[in-house]
Amino acid sequence: MNEISLPALVEVPTTGNLTNFISERASLEPHRITMSRPLGDGWQPVTASEVEQEIRAVAKGLVASGINVGDRVAIMARTRYEWTILDVAIWYARGVVVPVY
After folding, report:
1. Is the pLDDT of residue 57 over 80?
2. What is the pTM of this model?
3. All domains of the chain, ordered by start, with CATH?
């Protein structure tokens, strides 16, 4: 078997996690439109700050309902805005997302 090794194209951070992207964007560019959600026949823009506020509120609800560090939380839903919020909120609550398809 031949083995090939190439240097990494980017430096991999040694700290932080995916939730940093949400909080950093909300901190650096709070009014930037980062998502859209369906509203009637169109789409409603959602700013980085609004996304983070929603995620934090859901995460607080998960913690209040008894989710602990490392607990697995299943999501059974179609791909949609709320799925994304819940997915990231589980990370914020330090749970592990288990998708159900």
Report:
1. yes
2. 0.82
3. 19-99 (3.40.50.980)
